[in-house]
Amino acid sequence: MPAEGAAIIEIHQDEVLTGEAVALDVQPLGFFMRALGVIIDMLLGVAVFILFLVVTAWLGGLGLLDETVMPILTIVIVVVVTVVIPTVTETVTRGRSLGRLAVGGRIVRTDGGAAGFRHAFIRALVGVFELWFTVGAVAALVGAFTPRSQRLGDLIAGTYSERTRTPRLPDPAFGIPPTLAAWSTVADVARLPDRLARRIAQFLTSAPNLEPSARARVAASLAEEASAFVSPVPRVDPETFLHGVAAVRRTRELRGVVLENERVARLTHAVAVAPRGFPER
Fold first, then answer.
1. What gap in Å lies between CA 87 and CA 118, rounded to an integer?
2. DSSP assignment, residue 69?
3. In whole angstroms, what is the distance from residue 246 CA to residue 256 CA?
4. Phi, psi (deg, nearest 5) at residue 12
5. Domain range list for the chain
6. 188 forms bridges with which residues in the sheet?
């Protein structure tokens, strides 16, 4: 039989369980947006490399650089572009880069914490193979088959790209309408079916954006269904009635959760202070 907590806490694929057993609802950056960010970063790296070639060719034309030094400088700039710059950039900006800033992403650890130097260095080293040597083919192949679009470097370093541009949270739920304040103290509002409760919540959230006639029609239909679970039914317009029903159910369910938590806390305290067995005779 599963533990009682297992029936309450459910960790989804897009959630991160921290060390304190807190589930964080996170949104990984999508595959195509992440690929776009990588392409931007690689194009910037290519631009830096081309700029270096132009500068060294100009200095060589002036006789300031020996031709024997050119291969060594080329290797150095390749290492700088492919390893040093990505590592320093991610470490200093806490997982950001110009490409990720453009697409709204950030590299974090798999537990949701900020990535550090070690993670950035591992990703950069593996990226030399999967991004530069294979022109991103390995990264795209691995990312397409991982839940969070992680590339090979992420899997080894224990990181992924988190979305930083999340939609605005919805406005807080409305309280009981003033015209129903007295009714709410005596109303008997039974538990609504889950499907009906979801439809009412969706309607109340989207009602301001609906066309007036459609808004009134949907409100009347939902109010008629909800009235079977309410006694007495107040003499108000359907939308106000739905606001009142939703507010009353939300308040009472919240009160029930609080009371249940208090009972559990009292029982836990009673068990903790209870004597451990019978005294010896």
1. 9
2. T
3. 15
4. -90, 170
5. 25-163, 178-273
6. 231
Contact between 177 and 56 (Cβ < 8 Å): no
Q: What end-to-end distance do the CA atoms of the chain give, in Å?
A: 38
- 235-258: b (≥16 Cβ within 10 Å) or e: ebebbbbbbbbbbbbbeeeeeeee
Rounded CA-CA distance 51/139 in Å is: 26
Q: pLDDT tens track of the chain, all 281 residues?
A: 344 433 333 444 444 444 434 444 467 888 898 999 999 999 999 999 899 888 887 877 777 777 777 788 888 889 999 999 999 999 999 889 999 999 989 999 888 788 899 999 999 999 999 999 999 999 999 999 988 889 999 999 999 998 887 655 445 456 788 888 888 888 888 888 888 888 888 888 888 888 888 889 999 999 999 999 988 988 899 989 998 888 888 887 777 777 777 777 777 767 666 655 545 44
The candidate with the shortest Cα–Cα distance to 199, out of 172, 180, 218, 175, is: 218
CA distance 100 to 80: 19
20 is written with which tokens?
């304190």
